[in-house]
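Q: Can someone sanity-check these two? First one:
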Amino acid sequence: MPTFAFRAFCPLLAAVLVFGGFGQSLSRAGQINWGSPAFATNQLSGGAEWGGDFVFELGVFDAGFTPTSANVTEWADRWNVADRSEYNATFKLFTGSFSVISNAAPFSAGARGYIWGYRSVAGGGEWILVTDPAWLWPGNSPLDPPVDWGAASASAVVGAVNPGGGVTLRTASVGSAALPSLIYAVWRTQVFSLDEQGDALVSGLGADPDKDGRTNAMEFALGSNPKIADPPPSFVAAGGPPGARYLQVSAAKPAGRAAFFWAEESEGLAGWIRASENVIVFEDSLTQLTARLPFGGKSRRFLRLSADVF
């Protein structure tokens, strides 16, 4: 069972010239900047520092439901996630920026916002949930100023904020309460038999039992079946002048999975660069990633989809 982020990539590459002009990125609306301070001391309930197996989610609970330490077993069923961030154990922080483009329920303007952090191992184990009376979900007007929601200045429903001793955030043990998002260790038990779970060549993160070029980790991230061969991912072509040639990768993200996607580029397949200034991200939401890579006069460029899986 992984207690860390496992990196996966799709080996089916876009290596053909595509023509077209660049579109425009989504217009900004109400914006929530959320996260925690860098280089902070953040601890588990037992005193050990957090590792890279923590995931943080920004969202709201169903209208009329108030989370408390007494009803943690109900949280997952009442939770609605808007944005997700992985914990950076090197810089000791998590951070995200979310644009509110709709106020459809349950993300109604004025709804109480929360940040839910959890250790992404089977059974959950360690959680922290923070909020603040001022964390009211903004409207979707681009005229609304951005809001900043910092976990270090919030109040904890479960866990602790600034409990003393130089600690900024501390999680609490919640036993086997359900996680808000599906993690690989749980998914593995859902799609593989007991015998298959005991064979790393079949159910391991890097295994590819259906021989379609996608590892189990990428099958999990994309929501596909590891036992049925899948077609290549969607690389989209569009017409336009030769001076605006680009590669594009577009992937649908299944809801409720602890996976983080990005695009990587390469000029010769020997080395890959993540999220360089050359890659133009047109959409990176909970449901879709669309990125483009202009050729910029170079004869060969490659683009691939990668993901961290928890």
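And here is the second, same format, sequence then tokens:
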Amino acid sequence: MNRFKQLTEATRFMIIALCATLVLASCDKKENEEPLIIVANGTTGDLTWKITDDGTLIISGTGAMSDYITTPGMPWNNYRSEITTVVIEEGATYIGQNAFDNCSSLTSVTIPNSVTFIGEGAFNGCSNLTTVNFNAVNCTSMGGLGHRMGTSYVFSAFEDCSKLTTVNIGNEVKTIPAYAFFGCSGLAEVTIPNSVTFIGSYAFYSCSGLTEVTIPNSVTFIGNYAFYGCNGLTEVIIPNSVTEIGNAAFSDCNGLMAISADAANNSFSSDNGVLFNNAKTVLVVYPTGKTGAYTIPNSVISIGNWGFYGCNSLTEVTIPNSVTSIG
């Protein structure tokens, strides 16, 4: 028994010694890991900001950022070319105009649930931005119409972000705001979660590289020009939840061959890839990519606004006597 007891105590000693060695090794490893260094910090509106030496700009606090009418006005202007990641933490409600304009090394942005408005040109010219993690639940706008040298012009949050290929929309997001990804030609695929009910006007306008979009059975509204000029789209399915589609929402999509409405939809119907109202009395939109001749059904009494806009491959249209109104 004494020998067994001695062996047990020796074993225990070895285990304790081994654990101590592992702890010391862990401490040495932590000591060898250099902590991130804050290279600059300050305030922007109601919020604070800091830049760490790995190129991350972190915006913290509760409330709104400031607007920056001119690019040099932003407090991190001297570090724009070094910023690779922007993390806007929960609590921020507004991202200011031109806030991250021409941050040429920026590759990734995270937008939190709390943001309700993003100013014009917030990420304008971020030429290497590839990924946006969009979690803003009820953001209402990400740009707008303005004037530049006397000419009407659209100012969007991600203007000239041609390398933006990935947009991760959070599963609590309810609204895809107007002008959200206007002109993001590199965007190839978007998955819209089934929390979204509203797709704003111009949301994906001229996203010419977009080849696939799934509209979930939660969306009720698709705004004017929402997918205008999305030349890579070949088919769009309108789920039964959609009750309103704005003017030119799918116009000038040169590759679009079919717009199909779910059979259970009470507002819209489709026939041979052409979208009508449910009663087939109004032709809503003819897919731009369809070719050849087309005869409008005798049930149609009205052709909607922009119904045949951009249908350059359409060779002939037969309009029945039943049609009394052409938009």
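A (reply): Looked at the second one. The first helix runs from residue 2 to 32. The helical segments are 2-32.
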